UniProtKB/TrEMBL annotation:
This protein's name: non-reducing end alpha-L-arabinofuranosidase
Principal EC category: hydrolase
Classification via PROSITE patterns: RICIN_B_LECTIN
Signal peptide: 1-32
Record-linked PANTHER family: ALPHA-L-ARABINOFURANOSIDASE 1
Hydrolase among keywords: yes
Cited SMART domains: Alpha-L-AF_C
Protein's organism: Umezawaea tangerina
Domain of life: Bacteria
Positions of the Alpha-L-arabinofuranosidase C-terminal domain: 613-789
Known EC number: 3.2.1.55
Reactions the enzyme catalyzes: Hydrolysis of terminal non-reducing alpha-L-arabinofuranoside residues in alpha-L-arabinosides
One GO term (biological process): L-arabinose metabolic process
GO molecular function: alpha-L-arabinofuranosidase activity
Length: 797
């Protein structure tokens, strides 16, 4: 075979013949597995061309060969002396940016488009077992390295043939892909906290009201605008017999907020009132024979009936009468025990005779039987979170900062009797009555035995933060400590981490606000860890004071001031970075950007004690593809010693009630059912595989969609190997153990269609399945990891 006009070396001829044969095979078969793969080796340095760098459509670079599929290439004959050069890692073709053909054109990968000359290459013998690779574009310029450098990391460019210039000659070397994972169990390179299994809560898509909060009434304070004339929006007028009612919203002297509900029995016989069917009127879930406890605020001199009924009111399951005494607003408690189980019931407040009643607040929740450890929390929801294996939860997000007007989000609105707490404007829902807020969240963490991190509005005043510290930690005899005791929490709270803001631009304005609050906190107790509400970084940072891809900032100047301040107090400071895990492709580049961010923080303030927390793994899906992206991110972050918490958003989602977008709940629920989505099971598997030590692991034959993390127990007798294969093909690897022996591995695998989810009708459509695998000689295992899978192997020595 002749390339150009010169004969090539025997091995090169054989290689290209094999390439052409492989191309012919691939045209008639469904798989390219039989195709020969090559490394393109820069002749003087031995570095190979590959697509291993981060960023969107990154330039090709030369680097040492690591067995990564993205460093392997297939050569496809186009029949006219030119070839496609196809990356084995992603199937894209070697191309130039925007089809450029001049000197300096950047070489990258792109989908093959068929007729564009920048995607076609001529391979010519250059003597001594080397070749040149010429682009078909104008001038026939050569695949070259930038500026003639051959050092690792140098980008590829087109350049005119230049005598004596390095980086223009290559060796095309047939290279078989070896897929192997070697775990050096006796070489512990880091420690991983349990808090890498965590979830975030805020009242987005009704995670709180209608979600974890045991309150069954939605619209409890009658704050919503009228839907029916004179009736608050989450309620409807109801009547029986020939009775006629009149309704109005009292804005003159409401119980709280801007309005209360007025009911007037005008004429006739029967009853008139208002009814509520829970969140977005989906229906209230009831269990027969179980007590439900309630509170109601009334202003009336007439008896008021409270009842549980079926959806159309034709059947009454339980009823009681309340007769307030005295003038003005009075609160009363009641208990109702329904006779029938019903997922779509309603609560009715009614008058049975002439008169007027003003209703200011209604609360209904299951008795102790349906609440988690005495909290105002749905037991079935919290039980699912416990089974999830969570070790930390975070309360906050756009609800408290970074996304819009949250001026009324203040911790002082969330203390005292929930009945009397103010109605405030929320980011996700405009009528927050604050019955379940920061301190109910902290109590949930206490009840679950895990860390709970609240996120505060960065615009809290220094005095309010000083009051908060006393409320959290002060003695019972202090002003705010006494308020805590009165609120039912005699002992100080144990929370040791407080976030200031969320997804803020960490700039000079943020720095000034942070410093004002941090001076208060760290003067009180420098062991409290403050968390900076940072955002996201997509590009590798090489200059800390001038970069791209920083979301809302392009400099770490404010970060430097924060680090210096923490150093002056001898405090530890955390920085919250959010990652996008919509799909696995793209996570690796974000991790590299995070690595550079962590490195630059250490450079700009030497000696500062800092960590990174990832409080939000975000997506807009809750299927298996998102689960694999989460697993990949957690895997990678477990190998980063500076990363202290990894939390996935959102902890919860009410099925069919997605009012705010962000279709990413881990636990789904409706009125009477709770089930996990695929990302939920990633957490369960991660919790089960946790060990404290990170073992050094070498992977050959992988790519950006294959990721391995190995964890070892403190005594060296337990080993977990967690593997993500987010490719569309099963991959067979040989696992070799160094410094560890085991006969059997317990295997858990989560796999399926990328878009597969769990539903109320099929809640176990995608769940882990368990098996065992036998090792050869106690140290080797050849295992096929399914396509689109997360696999956890657990071994005991």
């Amino acid at each position: 075979m002749i390339l150009g006009r010169k004969p090539v070396k025997r091995y090169l001829v054989a290689a290209l013949v094999a390439a052409l044969a492989a191309a012919a095979v691939s045209a008639t078969t469904a798989t390219a597995a039989a195709e020969t793969t090559y490394t393109l080796v820069e002749a003087t340095s031995g570095n190979v061309l590959g697509a291993t760098r981060s960023g969107n459509d990154p330039a090709m670079t030369v680097d040492p060969y690591t067995g990564d599929r993205r460093q392997l290439w297939r050569v496809v004959d186009l029949g006219d002396g030119f070839r496609r050069i196809v990356n084995d890692g992603n199937g894209k073709s070697l191309s130039t940016v925007d089809g450029g053909s001049g000197d300096g054109a950047v070489v990258h990968l792109w989908d093959y488009l068929g007729s564009y000359p920048d995607q076609q290459w001529r391979i010519d013998d250059a003597g001594g077992g080397t070749v040149t690779v010429a682009n078909r574009g104008t001038g026939g310029r050569l695949l070259s390295t930038k500026d003639g450098s051959t050092a690792a990391g140098t980008e590829a460019r087109l350049w005119s043939r230049t005598t004596g210039r390095a980086g223009q000659t290559w060796k095309l070397v047939p290279t078989a892909l070896v897929r192997e994972v070697v775990v050096h169990a006796d070489d512990v390179v880091g420690q991983v906290p349990r808090t890498h299994v965590a979830a975030g809560l805020e009242d987005v898509n009704h995670e709180v009201y209608g979600g974890i909060y045991s309150q069954l009434v939605f619209g409890e304070a009658f704050a919503e605008p009228a839907y029916d004339a004179g009736v608050s929006g989450m309620w409807r007028a109801t009547s029986t017999g020939g009775a006629r009612g009149e309704y109005a919203l009292d804005t003159t002297s409401p119980f709280k907020g801007g309005q209360s509900q007025r009911i007037r029995f005008a004429t006739g016989t029967g009853t008139v009132g208002v009814e509520n069917r829970g969140l977005n009127r989906q229906g209230i879930g009831l269990v027969a024979g179980k007590p439900y406890e309630g509170t109601i605020a009334l202003r009336t001199d007439r008896p008021v009936g409270v009842a549980l009924q079926n959806g159309d009111g034709s059947r009454t399951y339980a009823r009681t009468a309340i007769s307030p005494s005295g003038n003005g607003w009075r609160t009363s408690t009641f208990t109702l025990t329904p006779t029938t189980t019903d997922a779509h019931a309603r609560l009715v407040v009614e008058l049975a005779g002439p008169g007027t009643a003003d209703v200011g607040y209604v609360f209904l929740e299951p008795g102790a039987w349906g609440r988690f450890q005495g909290q105002h929390v749905r037991k079935d929801v919290a039980d699912a979170m416990v089974r999830q294996g969570l070790k930390a939860i975070r309360f906050g997000g756009c609800a408290n900062s970074g996304c819009g007007d949250v001026s009324e989000y203040r911790w002082k609105a969330m203390i005292g009797d929930p009945v009397r707490r103010p109605v405030t404007k929320g980011f996700w829902y405009p009528y927050e009555s604050n019955g379940w807020g920061v301190f109910e969240f902290l109590r949930l963490g206490e009840a679950m035995g895990i860390e709970a991190v609240p996120s505060l509005n960065i615009d809290e005043t220094p005095q309010d933060v000083a009051d908060l510290l006393q409320y959290l930690y002060g003695p019972a005899g202090s002003i705010w400590g006494a308020r805590r005791v009165a609120d039912g929490h005699p002992a100080p709270y144990a929370v040791r981490r407080l976030q200031l803001g969320n997804e803020n631009a960490v700039d000079e304005a943020y720095w000034r606000k942070f410093k004002a609050l941090a001076d208060v906190v760290w003067s009180y107790d420098p062991t409290i860890r403050l968390v900076v509400g940072d955002f996201s970084y997509s590009d590798v940072i090489t200059d800390p004071f001038h970069f791209t891809g920083g979301g809302k900032v392009d400099t770490l100047a404010a970060h430097q001031k924060i680090l210096d301040l923490s150093k002056a107090y001898g405090a530890v400071v955390d920085f919250d970075i959010h990652l996008w895990t919509q799909q696995t492709d793209g996570v690796e580049s974000q991790i590299r950007a995070l690595d550079s961010y962590v490195d630059q923080l250490g450079r700009i303030s030497p000696g500062a004690d800092y960590h990174v927390v990832v409080f939000e793994l975000n997506a807009d899906r809750h299927d298996l593809a998102r689960a694999l992206a989460n697993a990949y991110a957690i895997n990678a972050l477990q190998r980063r010693p500076k990363v202290d918490v990894v939390s996935s958003a959102n902890a919860l989602q009410v099925d069919g009630q997605n009012d705010n977008g962000w279709n990413q709940g881990l636990v789904f629920l409706n009125q009477n059912q709770v089930w996990g989505q695929p990302p939920y099971y990633v957490h369960r598997m991660k919790a089960a595989s946790w060990q404290p030590g990170v073992a050094r692991t070498d992977v050959t034959g992988g790519d950006g969609l294959f990721n391995v993390t190995a964890l070892v127990s403190a005594d060296g007798n337990g080993l977990s190997v967690d593997v993500v294969n987010a490719t569309a093909e099963p991959l067979t690897y040989t696992l070799r153990l160094d410094g560890f022996r085991a006969d059997t591995a317990a295997v858990s695998t989560l796999d399926g269609r990328p878009n597969a989810v769990n539903t109320a009708g099929n809640p176990e459509n995608v769940v882990p399945h368990d098996s065992t695998a036998q090792l050869t000689g106690g140290t080797a295992l050849t295992y096929t990891f399914p396509a689109n899978s997360y696999t956890s192997l657990r071994l005991r020595g």
